[in-house]
Write the structure tokens for this entry.
Amino acid sequence: MRSSRFFSVFCLLLITAALAFAGGGREAAPAAAPAATGEFDWQRYAGTTVVFNFPNHVHYNAMIEAGVIEEFEELTGITVEVDRMQYLNMHDSQVLEMSRAQGDYDLISMVVMWKAEYALGGMIRPLQPFFDNPSLAVPGYNFDDLVPGYVEVTGIAGGDNIYRNGPGAELYGVPFGSETSFMIYRTDIFDEYNIPVPRTYAELTEAARRVYQEVPGVYGLTMRAASGHHATHAWLLHASPFGARVFDDNWEPVVNSPEAIETIEFMLQMLDYGPPGMVGFTQDEEFAAFLQGDAAIYLDASVFAGPAKNPRVSRVHENLGFALHPSARTPLSQTGGFGIAIPANSRNPEAAFLLMQFLTMPETEEKIIRAGGAPFRMSSLNNPALQAEYPEFAVLAEQLKVANPDWRPIIPEWGEINNMLGIAINQALTREKTPQQAMNDVMGPIRQVMVRAGYLD
């Protein structure tokens, strides 16, 4: 049986549990794990205990429901202790553990915006040496099948581009709970009221308006907007296709650009057509509004497809359509979510690497998908049989062709900038300030962070 040292959140309400919360010195990502000869020894570290820290999040909850942790324990003789928590609380806990000479965590899930901080701070291990070791690399793992955009955003760091692939970059994590963005809509409402599926932001605005004005008791788009991280996430989600950026090519902040202001003005329109109180929505409330049938359109992280189709938590599971993220100036979508990494001070890094591979193998992925998790391999997204069973897969495969690997600047200082930017955006959304005033006011504080960090003079 799996030990559960910290596993106190299991008794949360079902909807909370289901929804809470997407190479060494080389210019390209690391190559696939080399094939090994002979029978692979899964029992090499039998008797070892691995502690795995991960979020209360739909993909990881699906991992638990699929029973793959127990399968790993039976296969390897390794005991897995789990520490599951709300994802916004994970960062401080992980940094505390990884700052010690020897920490308690052997495998961690990290939000992509932490990867550069962890990698450049020497807190997580480069993975290429593990993949290069025939005694550790599982034959047939097929690294190259992992969604390339997810690999880059979750695991590549440390090179000239800091958080992108390129000269000097190394692999520090692999995708697990990664995501892009796409749209889910109520087919019953769109069909009955003859609303075209939006392909552009102008059409999205019109669809949200029509739902709000014509459909009794249903609102337009559900959207997160709470002050801090959630407001920043929502702004970035729409800023990318509008052509807005946080920094220019010289690291000067540009969050008060015309494109940035246009993005906030779109969000204000969505607040007018959205559910009451949406200006305070976190991801949980955003999800719940769609699941309960209060909103007809969802546009955000693709990991939501699992809960949306789950009859245990979704009142609208029989009336779902999936579509690409609408285009504004350009057809771009999010890259985000979670990856898994091995702390530099792990007590059992080799055993943790076996768990990392087992969780992300094709056979395990399919079990997690069937429990409501998110796909992270191209072979799954392009599999005709799975596409027939999971209609969103064909949309995701197409969406990933334009997923933006530079969706947000994943520099070590992003946590501080993310929060101050989210406060400013929320001030505009609550109409405490005009969009231009709010973004003008945050320009100086963001620039001070960049000067202090050495990006600017």
Observations:
- The longest strand covers residues 174-186.
